[in-house]
Design brief:
- By secondary structure, the protein is mainly α.
- It has a domain at 69-214: Tetracycline Repressor, domain 2, CATH 1.10.357.10.
- Helices cover 74% and strands 2% of the residues.
- The chain has nine helices and two strands.
- Helix 1 (19-41) packs across helix 3, helix 1 (19-41) packs across helix 4 (69-94) and helix 1 (19-41) packs across helix 6.
- The longest helix is centred in the middle third of the chain and has 26 residues, at 69-94.
């Protein structure tokens, strides 16, 4: 009679957690550490050594998750961007009433997120342009957020809000403009209260959508 095979290192559990769970947890720690360093010290100081020290993990575990520093930087930007998108969508989904009320809710939630997460906001708006790999990913993410704006505009105002030919351009125009507005506010170049920021952002969004419907 054959004996059962010993569990491999990749399937063995410790403390009720599988190897895959532990690997995922280590990656999450490294991504969070990278985002913290980017937001607090900037891209130049976010070295592999600094990330490992911040996460409390060795270089071995860094290379378990990433091919190199650039991959960790991009993963941190992705994580922050996912949080931004989730914040906006949740605010729209959780708000009842008119399209105007839902747009205001989304922008208010984003403004609050920026105020509550200044380091992550810096990652998304400032440090995302500090390295070629980050700049390339930032361009891709702008397109993703533009598509999100187009989708939400269709949900709020109807599927004919923007023609297919104009939709991506309108979405990019809004997302890039809003990002620059928030960046200028963070840098102290514009003295805008949260309410003023929300009003400007909502007015711009509704004007873009209304002008398209009136065409």
């Amino acid at each position: 009679m054959s004996t059962p095979a010993e569990p491999s290192a990749t399937t063995r559990t410790y403390g009720g957690r599988s190897a895959d769970d532990r690997r995922s947890e280590r990656r999450d720690r490294l991504v969070a550490a990278t985002a913290r360093l980017l937001g607090e010290r900037g891209e130049g100081a976010t070295t592999m050594t600094a990330v490992c020290a911040e996460a409390g993990l060795t270089e071995r575990y860094f290379y378990e998750s990433f091919t190199g520093r650039e991959a960790a930087l991009v993963a941190a930007l992705d994580a922050v961007s996912d949080d931004i998108a989730a914040t906006a969508v949740a605010a729209i989904t959780d708000t009842e009433g008119t399209a105007t009320a839902r747009v205001h809710a989304a922008l208010a939630a984003l403004a609050t997120w920026v105020d509550d997460h200044p380091g992550d906001a810096r990652v998304a708006l400032v440090e995302s342009s500090a390295h070629p790999a980050l700049r390339a990913r930032r361009r891709e993410l702008l397109g993703t957020f533009a598509d999100l704006v187009v989708t939400e505009a269709a949900e709020l105002y109807g599927p004919s809000t923007w023609s297919p030919a104009r939709a991506r351009a309108q979405g990019l125009l809004y997302v890039a403009g809003l990002a620059e507005l928030v960046t200028a506010r963070m840098a102290g170049e514009l003295a805008l209260s949260t309410d003023e920021l929300v009003e400007i952002g909502a007015d711009s969004f509704e004007r873009l959508a209304r002008d398209a419907r009136d065409d």
